[in-house]
Amino acid sequence: xxxxxxxxxxxxxxxxxxxxxxxxxxxxxxxxxxxxxxxxxxxxxxxxxxxxxxxxxxxxxxxxxxxxxxxxxxxxxxxxxxxxxxxxxxxxxxxxxxxxxxxxxxxxxxxxxxxxxxxxxxxxxxxxxxxxxxxxxxxxxxxxxxxxxxxxxxxxxxxxxxxxxxxxxxxxxxxxxxxxxxxxxxxxxxxxxxxxxxxxxxxxxxxxxxxxxxxxxxxxxxxxxxxxxxxxxxxxxxxxxxxxxxxxxxxxxxxxxxxxxxxxxxxxxxxx
Length: 272
What we know:
Elements: H1 22-36, H2 42-58, H3 63-68, H4 74-86, E1 92-96, E2 99-102, H5 103-128, H6 132-143, H7 153-183, H8 193-224, H9 244-268
Antiparallel strand pairs: 1-2
Helix pairs in contact: 1-5, 1-6, 1-9, 2-5, 2-9, 4-5, 6-7, 7-8
């Protein structure tokens, strides 16, 4: 389960998604997430799923990595689907005790499960195709107007970058601790829920200690290199600029938004 967490990992490549401007990718992913909440009909969700699948193919990253990224949240997805299926009013299809399954409940369950999957895949595409350093620079550039209000934009962007970098490291550290505990006879896969939760304690304690030690070493290293945040005289190695592919991605997102709205109207007026 721990090995299946792929969020925050970067996979180098030369696809069109890799070559997009990081600022544009952040804006487009944010717009895509917002557009998913505008999708209300089956046709609009079908369009969103088709667009997401096409982008996954364009990223040049194996589809199995996207599927593997869903495994850690399978429980959340199933729980959300069950809640929506049993607690949504509508035409009752079957009932047992206090539970009722309605037609609207099934539709809402499918809609919520698909929405969560698409949200995870869209977020994964951003981190898969953008290195933490580039993502930090893009985020800092987007938020730079907030410096007028004395908001520490650089510090916030640096925290996001360090958090993304730390995820793969923590996963590797967790796997190493679990292997050591299993060698000592620990069992994390059998027994009830309470027993499994108790078995996790020998993992959490050394993981927290290791995380704090690693953070302290990183802070010491940055201080030794005279790191002082966003200095006014700081120079940058890479200056980002928009290209034709970036403007084409905006046109594509606008067409996607128009398609979602159009399909919602078609369903609303009973055409589909």
